[in-house]
Write a structure and sequence with these properties.
mainly alpha, 4 helices
């Protein structure tokens, strides 16, 4: 499905709705098959010994450090993406018309002539 969408997604043609839905359903089928296989294999194996669970009401110091680093990474990542979007929006690149999308290679060969 992904191959067809990439192959036919051009400025002059697009893949049909049937191909898009078929690709999505195909991916969901593969994921469902893997999930059912894992569920079946784990239910038939059974646990040999009881698993001891850690207390659920507190986190260790290492857990807080990891949690803080992940939050910091997410916030910095969003900030960086927001900055890049604002800097790209501030550039004066001109208007790109719908008939110019996907024809960049053709445009560069026309300019060379």
């Amino acid at each position: 499905g992904h191959y067809l969408l990439n192959k036919y997604n051009r400025s002059t043609s697009q893949a049909s709705w049937f191909a898009r839905w078929a690709g999505m359903i195909g991916i969901m089928d593969v994921g469902g098959f893997i999930a059912l296989s894992l569920i079946y294999s784990t239910s038939s194996a059974g646990a040999v010994e009881e698993v001891v669970h850690a207390p659920q009401h507190e986190l260790s110091t290492v857990s807080y450090i990891i949690l803080g680093l992940v939050f910091l990474l997410i916030i910095c990542g969003f900030g960086w993406c927001f900055y890049r979007a604002l800097s790209a929006a501030g550039k004066d690149t001109g208007v790109q018309h719908p008939d110019e999308v996907g024809d960049e290679n053709q445009q560069t060969t026309d300019e060379r002539r």
